[in-house]
Design brief:
The chain has a single domain, classed as Growth Hormone, Chain: A (Up-down Bundle), CATH 1.20.1250.20. It is built from 16 helices and no strands. It is globular, with a radius of gyration of 22 Å. 54% of the residues are buried.
Length: 427
């Protein structure tokens, strides 16, 4: 009899658990209920898969072309791809507040598609040289400099404000799902067909996001500007200068990218020179990092708009520094690969929370400019960090030592802001 009495209780608990999971799933995917955001998300996912295929193939191509100087050229390629962010993103942010953002995004996608096909052609005819790769990376970076602010400022117009952190986290999920799928497909394509297939498939993938942009319906077009582009840029810079929170977030975005992104940039060096293995280990490392990133983005998507996002950001940044240091000091390839799961999760959580805070603090009429200032810092920190770290590796001869120094510096930075009473932890 007692067993019969317990059965209904187990049934009720099972129903409650299913209801709880269903509620959590709806909360995690809240922004996907908006048609235009859903279309753009799916198109971006397909394009991002192609982009990660090219990143894997391009990094391995540089390693095979440059031999002992591969660390320097990997850093230089990252620098050339991100340098336009430093040069053009501020202007692009102003343009995004003045023009139809769809047109800017279409231009960006077409240019990136063209460079992917050119790279595929050069590899196919066996005429590829390192300077070709660097030049095409620079051109791609120019396109991304205009496409990035347009995309970032378009997303808040596609969802309600209460779902904006969820939408930003979902964008991180699609980007990092691509980090999982892209390296896996790239590894298979490299083994079966060679690098041409990776670059060619990336070019084709841009057609999907172009179709998604053309299918958007309810898109807000900024009102006609009444002041000059330079004056609008000054307004954006002045607003960030006068906001202590935005200044701190912009600085944290730059430093986190400067010190943290080299972890991903130099994974080919870790696989080839430290662990003495081939592209298979590199793709497994990228995949593990991508799986962690997706899990981290899911947590942020579920978290949504939280009242203690500033404090959460600092804790996550410190934890990422610890995990990065542990990866650098690990002597075992299996342990190192496992640690990449946690670094991937923590890194994407840091950047998702930072971006959410910037978007929430930015007035709608200044969003393009404020986001572009943050993107200049964040995206600019990545190439500068890659270049500086690549040079440091050539001087000390140790990629793990460089990564360990960066990890310790990130942990100390987070601890400083967390315990010194700065206002960002109260946002």
């Amino acid at each position: 009899m007692s067993s019969d009495k317990r059965c209904p209780r187990r049934g009720l608990r099972s129903q409650a658990l299913r209801a709880h999971l269903a509620t959590a799933a709806r909360r995690t995917a809240a922004a996907l209920r908006y048609r235009d955001f859903r279309l753009l998300w799916l198109g971006a996912l397909t394009s991002s898969i192609g982009t990660w295929m090219q990143r894997v193939a391009q990094a391995w191509l540089i390693v095979t072309l440059t031999g002992s100087q591969s660390a320097f050229y990997l850093g230089l390629d990252s620098f050339m791809g991100e340098l336009p962010i430093l040069l053009l993103t501020l202007v692009a942010g102003v343009v995004a507040d003045r023009r139809d953002r769809r047109h800017m995004m279409l231009m960006s996608q077409v240019v990136q598609m063209t460079t992917a096909f050119v790279l595929a052609g050069l590899v196919f005819v066996e005429a590829i040289q390192v300077w070709h790769i660097l030049t095409l990376s620079f051109i791609t970076g120019c396109a991304q400099a205009f496409g990035g602010p347009a995309y970032q400022t378009l997303v808040p117009t596609l969802v309600d404000k209460e779902h904006l952190p969820n939408a930003i986290a979902l964008n991180s999920i699609q980007f990092n799902l691509a980090r999982i799928i892209g390296p896996i497909v790239a590894g298979a394509a490299l083994a079966a067909f060679g690098m041409v297939m990776c670059f060619g498939m990336n070019g084709i993938s841009f057609l999907f996001v172009i179709a998604a942009i053309l299918a958007l319906r309810n898109v807000q077009v900024p009102p006609a500007a009444t002041v000059s582009l330079v004056d609008q840029m000054k307004d954006g810079l002045r607003h960030v200068r006068d906001s202590s929170h935005l200044k701190t977030l912009t600085m944290l975005g730059f430093i986190a990218a400067f010190l943290g992104i080299p972890l991903l940039t130099f994974l080919p060096v870790m696989a080839k020179d430290v662990f003495q293995q081939d592209v298979g280990l590199y793709t497994r490392m990228m995949t593990m990092s991508g799986i962690g990133a997706v899990c981290g983005a899911l947590v942020v998507a579920w978290l949504g708009k939280h009242q203690h996002l500033g404090r959460i950001l600092l804790v996550l940044l410190g934890a990422f520094g610890v995990a990065m240091t542990a990866f650098a000091l690990s002597p075992d390839v299996r342990l190192s690969t496992a640690i990449l799961f946690f670094t991937g999760a923590l890194l994407v959580m840091c950047f998702s929370v930072t971006t959410s805070l910037v978007q929430l603090l930015a007035p709608s009429e200044l969003r393009g400019r404020i986001v572009s200032i943050y993107m200049t810092a964040f995206r600019g920190g990545s190439p500068l960090g890659g270049l500086a770290s690549g040079w440091l590796i050539t001087q000390v001869g140790s990629a793990p030592a460089m990564l360990a120094v960066n990890g310790v510096a990130l942990t100390l930075l987070a601890a400083y802001f967390l315990f010194r009473g700065h206002g960002i932890k109260h946002v």
